[in-house]
Amino acid sequence: MDRWFPSGYGFRRWAIVFAAGVAVLALGLAMWITNFYRAYIVDSTGTTLLYFATLQFIPHPWREILVGGAGLGLLVWGGLGISRSTARAAARGKVFEVPALSVMRPSRYVDGPRVVAIGGGTGMPTLLRGLKEVTDNITAVVNVVDDGGSSGRLRRDLGILPPGDFRNNLVALADAEPLMMELFQYRFEGAGELEGHSFGNLFLVAMTAVTGNFEQSIRESSQVLAVRGKVLPASLEDIELYAELQNGDIVRGESVIPRTIVPLKRVFMRPAHAAGYPEAISEILNAEIIVLGPGSLFTSIMPPMLVEDIARAVKRNTTALKVYICNVATQPGETDGFGVIEHVRALQDHIGPGLFDYVIYNSNMEGEKLIKPEWDVTAIKLDESATGRFPRLHFVPADVVRDDNPLRHDPVKLASAVMGLYERVGGKNNSTDRVREHRNGTLPGSGAEDKDAVTHAL
């Protein structure tokens, strides 16, 4: 029952009301049909309870109309109750599907475009929470260089891939009940060996031991959480991230790099030619939409793209809509003083051109008013005078931040921006040639002069 009707939001109560409405409505219809071929009459002088229970005191067809109307009323009442419960759950960031009513699910989920999101950190789960409401065909290709916190400890102690980003993305794509998702994100406190570890990380470690390998543990955990989509590693190799600073020093470790005082010059990984995960490569090659970001530029987005097989697959897919979602604010130690152009230039300097054709950046600057000097961050803006340096890229402004915290991305707005762009320049019913024309700037309305129309479409 818990799997079918998630607890805590009133689903069960209203589902029972809904089911009662269906049953009573069916009873009314059955009574109506019965009346056509035989009449069953109980005299008022006979069994009084049966007489009134079967509504014999009401003549046909009013008897059937009354019962059918009552059933229909319960049906509507229950349906509205389920809708209100779902809205309350969504308002708290918990969106669930009721499998018993899956036939009522919009077809766009099942038939939605094939989306591959590449990255890590906290930005990627934000995007996934929005995307799972518009398509089931989601693949998250996850960064595997995390070496800090619980993930780093487990990686060093047990020699497994860092589980933290996998856990966060599994939860973001999950349709499990709230208690299960909260359990996966629970972090142990106090002193001792468990301090700082999350239950989800330990669960993935245990599942790895049970199933025999990490990737199988992800598949089995996806079943436990009723994940909508796939979560895959960029590589199965033990990759470490390094950074060369502007003064020539080399810094080792994903968790250490953001703490450097000297600006970054470049990042690289060892081993330099780690193999990409085959299933991730296949998903990228068959994707209709490929999204990079949002997330930390050098420590979340760069690492999976530094895996040559992953970057090569992205570039080889010439039919997908390829989008980079730029951050809302700079990150101390990584992107100090960066604007949209600097983010794009850094990606191209490291990976080369051809990774993406569109850059979605935030157009809502309300968050700039909230920034305090001691935070050492600035709102990321586009220098429109510099866009000419990237003639094949289209810069798309969109309001993608939360209303209650305009320094953070909003899942629904992010998904709407991506899908709105997809429908405008590609879309399920448009030809591959049309996508290529828009990419090359030969399709009317594809260039910078039509930026307002693109924005309007979002």
Structural write-up:
The protein has 17 helices and 10 strands. It has helices at residues 11-37, 48-53, 62-91, 107-111, 123-131, 149-158, 164-172, 178-185, 199-211, 214-224, 278-285, 297-306, 308-316, 340-351, 411-425, 432-440, 451-457, and strands at 115-119, 138-142, 230-233, 240-245, 250-252, 264-270, 289-292, 321-325, 358-362, 394-398. The longest helix is centred in the N-terminal third of the chain and has 30 residues, at 62-91. It is elongated. The protein starts with 10 loop residues before the first helix and ends with a helix.
Briefly note the structural class of the backbone.
Answer: alpha/beta
Q: Strand order, biggest sheet? A: 3-2-1-7-8-9-10
Report the average pLDDT across residues: 82
As a percent range, the share of strand residues is: 5-15%
* Element order: H for helix, E for strand: HHHHEHEHHHHHEEEEHEHHEHEEHHH
Quantity of strands, as a count: 10
Query: Which shape, going by the Cα principal axes?
Result: elongated
Tally of alpha and pi helices: 17
Radius of gyration equals: 27 Å
The residue fraction in helices comes out at: 40-55%
Unreliable sequence segments: 1-9, 90-108, 428-436, 442-458
Question: What's the story with the biggest beta sheet?
Answer: 7 strands, parallel
Our measurement of the CA-to-CA distance between the termini, rounded to an integer number of angstroms, reads 40 Å
